[in-house]
Amino acid sequence: MPLIPEEPQIHESAQGPRATQASGRVAPTPRPVPGPRPAAPPRPGRPGPARPMPPAQRTPRDTAAKPGPSAPAAPGPAVASAPQIQLVPASAEGALDAAEEAVDLLLDAGRAPGEVLVITTGDPHPWATHELSFGESAYWAQHDAGDDVFYADAAALSRAAARPVVVVAVNGGSEETAVAALPTALTRASTLLIVCGDPQRINSTLGAGV
C-alpha cells in the first residue's frame, strides 16, 4: 500500500491572532491630537507630509500658492474682539454682593481699578448714590478720569464708555431694564462681561451667548 507523504499542516490560528492583533492595533493608533495637527486636510498649496509630491510638480504649485497660508490669520481679530461672558448665579437680593465679590477678585488678580465698570439694574450702588449727591458733573468727571472702579445705573449705561471688564448686577428692576442693559453691557466690555443674577433670566436675555 503506497504511503501518502504527510503534508505539513498550517494552522490558520497561527496567523489569525496576529492579523487581528495588528488590525486591532491600527484602529486605536491615531491618538486624539489637537485639531490642527492631523495632516488630512492640507493647507492650500502645501501638500501634507503623508504624500510628498515630486519636486518637479511641487515647486510651481508651492510657489504659486505660498501666499495662501496667510489668509487663515484673518479671522483672528474677530475672535479676539468678542468678550468672554461669565455668569455668577445669584438672587436679586444677593446680586450686588456677588458683583462686589467679583470686583474684589478682579482687583486681587491684578486688574487695574480703572478697567472695571459695574452696572446695576435695580437699586444703585451706594457709591453711585453718594457721588451723585455732589452733582452729575462731578460724578461723570470721575468716570472720564478712568482711574477707579465706576458704578452706574443701567439707565446711564448708554453714557458709559467701554472698559475691559463690565460687571452687571441684576439686582431687580423691570424686565425691560434687564433686557436692554445686558446686550448693551456686552458692547461695553472689551474683554470680559460678568453677569450676577438669576441664570434663567440672564440666559433668556442674552440667549446662547452665555
Number of helical regions: 8
The proportion of residues forming helix, as a percent range, comes to 40-55%
* Shape field: globular
Alpha-beta classification: alpha/beta
Largest sheet: 5 strands, parallel
Low-confidence spans: 10-79
Would you mind describing this structure in some detail?
By secondary structure, the chain is α/β, with parallel strands linked by helices. Helix content is 41%, strand content 15%. The protein contains eight helices and five strands, in the order αααβαβααββαβα. The protein has a five-stranded parallel β-sheet with strand order 1-5-4-2-3, with helices on both faces. The model is unreliable at 10-79 (pLDDT under 50).
Task: Lay out the secondary structure.
Layout: H1 12-26, H2 55-65, H3 75-81, E1 84-89, H4 95-108, E2 116-120, H5 126-132, H6 136-145, E3 150-153, E4 163-169, H7 175-188, E5 189-197, H8 199-206
Parallel strand pairs: 1-5, 2-3, 2-4, 4-5
